[in-house]
Write a structure and sequence with these properties.
Helices cover about 55% and strands about 10% of the residues. It is of the alpha/beta class. It has a 6-stranded mixed beta sheet with strand order 1-8-3-4-2-7, sandwiched between helices. A two-stranded antiparallel sheet has the order 5-6. A two-stranded antiparallel sheet has the order 9-10. β3 and β4 form a beta hairpin. The protein starts with a strand and ends in a 6-residue tail after the last helix.
Length: about 550
């Protein structure tokens, strides 16, 4: 590791000609929200109120910086440095004394010194997309007023919108302070406020520090490190363009889903289930293929198209001249299971066959069948992920729809069908999924997703009939034990259960509980109940056979 320095540095030295802070283009944009900016000011105010001479620490920054050279690339700490610059600029523009204004402005901009060979410039330079805006509307004396006159919807980046929001919030609070109190805050920042500055001249060393800090729970993401390595391997022109594409993809998905994408990409490329943390495995299994002269290809051929595929799958908005509706219906069905382990295979398919909706329809029919079967059979995580890893290797080998891992064995078919014919209700994780999938088949609709706040699973034959009810005459104890929790006796309602109403006899229950203002008839599965004049063991036998048969046909579960 190259020489590492870590020291407590007073803010008046942090914002001096000792440091020329630059945010590399590979860094994520400024993203602190109003709550975080106001919290920073609130913490400073609390320290100010204590009237203590004890130092106040604002946290740490990690820099790539050579000792004695001002140029400092910010690896971690951008959000804090940017917010501090906004705060100092607001204090400067609110100051009533010109000397105070000048002193605060020296924190924000280097005034220049011919004897020292220093040119006038901002102390902190943001990424190229936002640097000019930040200079003109924050760092320039008197610019805050002009910044707040801008309409947020006219600003081109989320970072610029965040800068404006935070400046408005900080100015709104500080405008209510007396000039003397604002001066005291400025003096506190200058005299007893510190940052811990960690610096190393080596980028890899800085990334290792960054990684350790990430493992300690700071708000850092492995994708930021991957971005640094990829963009840092490019020339100036390529790095700016690729950083823009990367950030556009991250903004389109949102930070959480963008991070999720990289977990799936690791599986797409490795065909193996995860054994170590993503930070290490992704470097070895994916990035190592691109860092040696192919960094631009990683952005253009991996990040951008796979992020687009992820959005299409998540939002079910795949588009094609014909057949898109069928593909999007599969996305909706897959999304109703309790895991996303199927997603790497789905991403691979959309990435490689986006122009072939017919192939995608066949592939996703098989993938949904596999996913549904493992969900219903309650296959636990390790064998489930291993199955999808096998599938990824087969797809990579060119086996396509003939991939053996995509098929169900005769034993798997039989087990799935047995569970559909058994006690469905007691398996709480799968019962609603099975009934919604069945309801879609009965309605002859594609990828139905009901927009109800509440969807419940209800018994027709109740679990605990009243002693005087007709149920006890129509069903003996053995029959009730056999049929109560099976598929044929279950329906869907779009309201919470009514414990009393569940025990009505069939005719009364049908009239009061399955119809009327509550809209239960929206479900095709429930409408069928309305056509029955009685609810008997024989009717349940036929209904069970029909409903289980519909799912068996849809998922091809019958013996070959």
């Amino acid at each position: 590791m190259q020489q590492l320095e870590a020291q407590e540095v007073p803010l008046h030295k942090v914002f001096s000609h000792d440091y020329d802070f630059r945010i590399p283009d590979y860094q994520r944009p400024y993203a602190w929200d109003v709550e975080q900016a106001v919290q920073l000011l609130s913490d400073l105010e609390e320290s100010l109120d204590r009237s203590s001479d004890e130092p106040y620490f604002l946290g740490s920054v990690v820099l790539v910086k050579t000792k004695g050279v001002p140029k400092a690339e910010v690896i971690d700490g951008q959000q804090r440095l940017t917010t501090l610059t906004i705060l100092l600029s607001v204090l400067r523009d609110l100051a009533e004394n010109s000397n105070v204004q000048g002193s605060l402005d020296k924190f924000v901009t280097e005034p220049g010194d011919q004897m020292l060979g220093l040119a006038p410039k901002p102390r902190l330079r943001l990424r190229k997309r936002d640097a000019g805006f930040f200079r003109d509307y924050v760092q320039t004396p008197g610019a805050i007023t002009a910044l707040l006159e801008l309409k947020e919807h006219t600003l081109p980046t989320d970072a610029q919108k965040a800068v404006r929001r935070n400046a408005a919030a900080l100015k709104g609070i500080l405008s209510g302070w007396s000039d003397r109190m604002r001066l005291q805050l400025g003096q506190m920042l200058a005299q007893r406020t510190y940052l811990v500055v960690v610096s190393t001249p080596d980028l890899d060393s800085a990334h290792r520090i960054f990684s350790v800090m990430n493992s300690r729970g700071l708000d850092l993401s492995p994708t930021d490190i991957f971005k640094a390595r990829i963009i840092g391997a490019l020339g100036a022109r390529e790095s700016e363009e690729c950083a823009r594409k990367w950030e556009d993809a991250e903004e389109a998905l949102g930070r959480e889903d963008f991070a999720d994408l990289f977990l799936h990409l690791r599986m797409v490329f490795s065909g193996r289930r995860a054994e170590r943390e993503l930070l290490r495995e992704f470097q070895d299994q994916v990035l190592s293929q691109y860092l040696a002269g192919r960094a631009e290809s990683f952005v253009n051929d991996v990040v951008v198209p796979y992020a687009d595929a992820y959005a299409q799958i998540r939002d079910a908005n795949y588009a094609a001249p014909n057949g898109a509706e069928k593909v999007n219906a599969w996305f909706k069905r897959l999304g109703q299971t309790d895991n996303n382990d199927w997603r790497p295979a789905a991403l691979w398919a959309v990435r490689n066959y986006a122009d072939n909706p017919g192939w995608l329809d066949r592939f996703f029919r098989a993938l949904e069948r596999l996913s549904a079967s493992m969900f219903i059979r309650r296959v636990y995580t390790t064998p489930r992920v291993t199955r999808y890893a096998d599938l990824m290797r087969e797809l990579d080998a060119g086996m396509g729809l003939a991939s053996s891992s995509l098929q169900l064995t005769e034993e798997e078919k039989a087990d799935t069908l047995a569970r559909l014919n058994g006690d469905v209700y007691s398996v709480t994780k799968t019962r609603k999924y099975i009934l919604l999938r069945l309801d879609e088949l009965l309605a002859s609709a594609s990828g139905v997703v009901y927009d109800h706040k509440v969807i419940t699973v209800e018994h027709v034959l109740p679990q605990s009939p009243k002693a005087s009810s007709q149920w006890l005459k129509d069903f003996d104890d053995e029959q009730r034990a056999h049929w109560t929790h099976r598929l044929g006796n279950l329906v869907l309602l779009n309201r919470a259960k009514n414990a009393y109403a569940q025990n009505y006899d069939f005719v009364e229950k049908k009239g009061k509980y399955f119809t009327g203002k509550h809209g239960a008839s929206l479900f095709a599965l429930t409408i069928e109940v309305m056509h029955a004049t009685e609810w008997t063991p024989e009717l349940l036998r036929k209904r069970q056979e029909e409903l289980a048969g519909r799912l068996a046909t849809e998922w091809d579960l019958l013996p070959a």
